[in-house]
Amino acid sequence: MPLANLPAFASDLIAALEALGTERVDTPVIQPAEPFLDMAGEDLRRRIFMTESETGKSLCLRPEFTIPVCLRHIETATGTPKRYAYLGEVFRQRREGPNEFYQAGIEDLGEPDVARADARAVRDARTVLANGLPGVDLSIVLGDQSVFEAVVAACGLPAGWQKRLVHAFGNQERLQKLMADLSDPAPSGVFGPEVDRLAILGTLEDEAKLVAHIDATMEATGYSTNASRSPADIARRLREKMELANTRLDSRTLALLKEFLALELSLAEAPMALAAFADKAGLSLGAALARFESRVSALREIGVDPAGVTYRAAFGRPLDYYTGLVFEIAPAGGDLVLAGGGRFDRLLTLLGAKERIPAVGFSLWLDRIESVKGAAA
Predict the structure, then answer these.
(1) What does the alpha-carbon distance between residue 300 and residue 307 come to, in Å, rounded to a whole number?
(2) What is the DSSP letter of 306?
(3) Is the Cβ–Cβ distance between 108 and 99 less than 8 Å?
C-alpha cells in the first residue's frame, strides 16, 4: 500500500466508524514525547521516532492515536460521555511491515456503564471488520488485566512485586522470567556490602546509619547538590529493593499463578471457570469476577455470542495504560491482528484530566485489512 495514498476502502471505513455515533477527530503528527515515554510502555518506547524542538523539548512522530485523542479531549473540555473516531498515519518501527502506516479506530470516553462500553468496543470492532471483509471468518481473543491484578494481589505478594508482575502482563517471556526470579531469587549484594548490611538491618539506629552513609557518599561525590531525592528517600528505596530481592514465592503460590495463566477457554465458560479457580485456590476475587461476568452479559445483550470468543487469562497487549479488558481480532486460524483495543481508566487522569474518566477503545490496522482483502479476492 503506497503510504502517500489511503487505501480505496478508507472512506467507507471512516464513514462506518462515524455511523456508530462518533465524532471524527484528527490530531497533529508531531506530538510531545513525554506522555508516550511515561505511559505507553517499554515496547512502544523502543519503537517511536524521536525528534526535538528548537527549544530542546522532546517530540515524536505520532506512534498511536489513544494518547493524542485523550489529550485533545482534555484540552477542548468537551465533556463526557464522548465517542471519537479517527483515521490517519502513525509512525513506529515494526518487526514486519512499513514503519509508516494507517490506523483507524474509536475512543469511547466517559461512559459510566463500563460493561456496556467494553461490550460495545468489541462489537463495533468486529462489526466494522466483518462488513469490510465479507466472507472472512474472524476470531476474537479477550483478556482482562484487572482479573490478573486481583489474582496477584490475593496471593499476598509485596506491592513492588505486584507492580512488576502487572507491568509484565501480556509479555509471556518477561512474565515467566519474573516468576522464575520470584521462585528462586538471586542472592542480594547488588548495592555493595556496606549498604546491603545497613539496609537489611531493622532498628531505627541502623536506619540512621544508612541515611548517614548515603549522605556522606553523596557529599563525597558532589552528587548531593544535584540530587532530586534526599538520603532518606534513597534509603527507603534501597530497603524496598532489598525486600524485592529477598522475597521468595512459595511453590503453592507459584503453582496457582501458573494454573491461572494457563486458562484458555470459551468466554461463555470463563466466568464459571474463574469462580472455580478462586474457590479452589482460596482467593478472594469477588469484585474483579463481578465486573468480568457483567461484561459477558453485556456482550450477549448486544449480540456478541461469548461462545464465539476465546478467553485467555495470560493475554495482554503491549501498552502500559490498559487497566481491564484487552482484546484482539484476527482472521480465524491466523495471527495477523486486524484490530486491538482495551480499557484505560487511569490514562486521562495521568494526562491531566481533573476527574476520573473511564475509557475504552480500539484501533484497526488498514494495511493488514487491505492484505486480507487482497487474499480473499
Answers:
(1) 10
(2) G
(3) no
Q: How far is CA 163 from CA 175, 267, 314, 319, 356, in A?
A: 12, 27, 16, 15, 21
Buried b (16+ CB within 10 A) or exposed e, 63-95: bbbbbbbbbbbbeeeeebebbbbbbbebbbeee
pLDDT tens sequence across 199-230: 444 444 566 776 677 667 767 666 654 555 67
- Extract the runs of DSSP E, i.e. beta strands, from 131-282: 138-144, 264-266
Beta pairing class for 264-266 and 309-312: antiparallel
Task: Report the C-alpha gap between 179 and 163 in whole angstroms.
Answer: 13
Burial 151-162 (b: 16+ CB within 10 A, else e): bbbbbebeeebe
Omega before residue 112 within 30° of 0, cis = no
| DSSP-derived 3-state class of residue 369 | helix
* CA nearest neighbour of 299 among 123, 111, 173: 123
Residue 121 C-alpha cell reads as 468496543
- What's the length of the chain? 377
SS3 218: helix
pLDDT digits 0-9 by tens, 119-174: 999 999 999 999 999 999 999 999 999 999 999 999 887 777 788 888 888 888 88
pTM of the model: 0.83
